[in-house]
Amino acid sequence: MSKEFREFLRKVGSGTHTSKSLTRQEAEMATIMMLKGEATPAQIGAFMIAHRIKRPTSEELAGMLDAYKLLGASIAPIAHERQVLVFGSPYDGRSKTAPVSLATSLVLAAAGIPVLLHGGDRMPTKEGMPLIDIWQALGINWRDRAITDLHKALEQQHLSFVYLPQHFPLAQSLVPYREQIGKRPPFATLELMWSPYQGNQCIISGFVHPPTEVHIREAFAMHGISEFVTVKGWEGSVDLARSRTNIIGINHGDHFERVILAASKYGFSNQDPAIADADTIANYITTALKGEPSEYLNSILWNCGFYFWIAGLATDISQAIIYAQEIIDNGLAMQKLQDLQRS
């Protein structure tokens, strides 16, 4: 048993009236001890559930992010004039709507915008569809690649994926606790914020609840992260919905702007594509990248329009949607998919 970790546990788990939040340094040390297995399984499970009940503070999340930056996967900067867009979506996957972030990433990469995604396998407690399964169904295997290969893919193909079990096994070792405690621990919020990339970047963090966005913004400020976007997307992901208004926060330097976007304003219906198995979604993607009309293609165009605009490739979203359609019609997005399948 770790006596040092027991003090952290006593601090956060003392109850409604006497529990206290950890300092940033304490949260970092507690996270390191959990990742390295220096805390016992009983201590780790107790900490996760106590911390969830107490609710993490922005300072604690900043400390946890310190630990992930110290021990996590690290991709060196690439030689590129544009910011890398790092997509932070929930690791526990999707159970209602079909992900479009993979297809969006392929179109962005075809336009020369580098994109980095990260995630794992099916994750408790939701056990939703993970992105890695769809990549595999598309014929792209990120599971066995070395970090150097991921860097090469990001630099040459403008697209890469960090796979938690292979590239950050310390974090993967904490996954079984999620099933055992039956609740999302604060690490689920941390994954929306964490970036494995070390160069010039813009972090895109999905969220569901407004307090989560506040914590993300405040923790980023503590880390000096000033280029980021928060998206209240499908099921907490970075995918913009068409069936409802999207609440977005855009931070550049010391300026934060709130943006409210509705797909109907840009001529799209309110129909979001429903979840399906990985092979079916892979078929949706390849069909859409061939330019064949579908509601799934419309969701790709809607999302690409937003992210092209964020990346500065268009002065407004309407223009960006047209540009995304041109990338697809010219076969560049399908070519990008084929290049990744061969690499």
What does this protein structure show overall?
This protein folds into 2 domains: 3-71, Transferase, Pyrimidine Nucleoside Phosphorylase, Chain C (Transferase, Pyrimidine Nucleoside Phosphorylase, Chain A, domain 3); 84-342, Nucleoside phosphorylase/phosphoribosyltransferase catalytic domain (Pyrimidine Nucleoside Phosphorylase, Chain A, domain 2). It has a 7-stranded mixed β-sheet, with helices on both faces. The chain has 343 residues and is an alpha/beta fold. Strand 6 (246-252) and strand 7 form a beta hairpin. It has helices at residues 3-12, 24-35, 41-54, 58-71, 101-110, 131-137, 147-156, 164-167, 169-172, 175-181, 187-193, 210-222, 278-289, 295-311, 317-329, 332-342, and strands spanning 84-88, 115-119, 159-163, 201-206, 228-231, 246-252, 255-261. The chain is built from 16 helices and 7 strands.
Largest sheet: 7 strands, mixed
* Structure classification: alpha/beta
Name the beta content range: 5-15%
Name the CATH superfamily classification of the largest domain: Nucleoside phosphorylase/phosphoribosyltransferase catalytic domain
> Tally of extended strands?
7
Oligomeric assembly:
single chain
Total helix count?
16
Query: Which residues sit in consecutive blocks of at least 5 with pLDDT less than 50?
Result: none
CATH fold title of the largest domain: Pyrimidine Nucleoside Phosphorylase, Chain A, domain 2
The global form is globular
Q: Do you know the CATH architecture of the largest domain?
A: 3-Layer(aba) Sandwich
Q: What distance lies between the first and last C-alpha atoms, to the nearest angstrom? A: 46 Å
